[in-house]
Amino acid sequence: MERKANEAAAAAAYEEFEPFCRWQRKEDHDILEIHLQEFKREQLKVQISNYGILKISGERTTSDASRKTRFYKEVPVPSTKYDTPAIRAKFVSGCLYITLPKWKNSAPDIVKTRHPKWSKPLKELQNWPPKMNQRHHQLILRSKQ
């Protein structure tokens, strides 16, 4: 019983809020601007998951030190549109700027990419499935009988 009371007190000590956010859309990149006036850089965390979710969070003690204020925001980042390994964050004068570079052709150029185990370009896989010649087709028909 005492444990539940302590957990409830800890939850009440936090004040959740939603920070003001604004998108700046550019031709080659987008910028997510998040206004966090009373936060310091050390109080913020920016991560991207393997599933393409940008997770932004922050926690700080209020000026009277009686409570803590925090926020948590998730933003989907499609890997077909953005170069996720090149995403960068910068905190300047109470604003967090997250730069999301776009792919040149709005999607990665898979055709020119090579797999380390394959010696042929993936471009050949675009013609999949291969067209069957007459003999191959006949062999398949015989196996079904």
TrEMBL record:
It is a single-pass membrane protein. Its main location: membrane. Residues 11-119 form the SHSP domain. GO terms for biological process: cellular response to heat; defense response. One of its GO terms (cellular component) is plasma membrane. InterPro entries: A-crystallin/Hsp20_dom, HSP20-like_chaperone. It is found in: Cell membrane. Transmembrane segments: none annotated. Pfam families: HSP20. Keywords: Cell membrane, Membrane, Plant defense. Belongs to the small heat shock protein (HSP20) family. This is SHSP domain-containing protein.
